[in-house]
From TrEMBL:
One annotated GO molecular function: transmembrane transporter activity
UniProt-listed GO biological process terms: xenobiotic detoxification by transmembrane export across the plasma membrane
Species: Rhizobium tibeticum
Segments traversing the membrane: 33-50, 57-78, 84-103
Annotated SUPFAM superfamilies: Multidrug resistance efflux transporter EmrE
Membrane topology: Multi-pass membrane protein
UniProt cross-references to InterPro entries, sorted A to Z: EmrE-like, Small_drug/metabolite_transptr, Small_multidrug_res
Cellular compartment(s): Cell membrane
GO cellular component: plasma membrane
Similarity comment: family membership: Belongs to the drug/metabolite transporter (DMT) superfamily. Small multidrug resistance (SMR) (TC 2.A.7.1) family. Gdx/SugE subfamily.
Identification of the protein by name: Guanidinium exporter
Keywords: Cell membrane, Membrane, Transmembrane, Transmembrane helix, Transport
Gene3D superfamilies: 1.10.3730.20
Organism placement in taxonomy: Bacteria, Pseudomonadati, Pseudomonadota, Alphaproteobacteria, Hyphomicrobiales
Length: 104
């Protein structure tokens, strides 16, 4: 269950990271509200997950999911570059997440 909550926390991290782009410097009320809600949900879920998971592993996986998801959403939604080197780096992060999950 902790791993599932950690996955959800990482997904909400993607939500608030992408949401930052849509807040326009926190001047747009609806995107700002949704972004702040995503921030709170993400951190609360992380906090629950670390009750049973090692903090170093959980934090690294949380940020990894957020990083990979945000890069992919940036490519898909915002037209960020999808270069070979960026995609290779994303795959390295995914490998690191898998390694941490396997050794926890």
């Amino acid at each position: 269950m902790a791993w599932f909550l950690l996955l959800l926390a990482g997904l909400f991290e993607c939500g608030w990271a992408i949401g930052l782009k849509y807040t326009d410097g926190f001047t747009r009320p609806l995107p700002t509200t949704l972004t702040v809600i995503s921030m709170v949900v993400s951190v609360v879920l992380l906090g629950i997950a670390v009750k049973t998971l090692p903090i170093g592993t959980a934090y690294a996986v949380w940020t990894g999911i957020g990083s990979v998801g945000t890069v992919l959403l940036g490519i898909w939604l915002l037209g960020d570059a999808a270069t070979t080197s960026r995609l290779l780096c994303i795959s390295l992060i995914v490998a690191g997440i898998a390694g941490l999950k396997a050794t926890a």
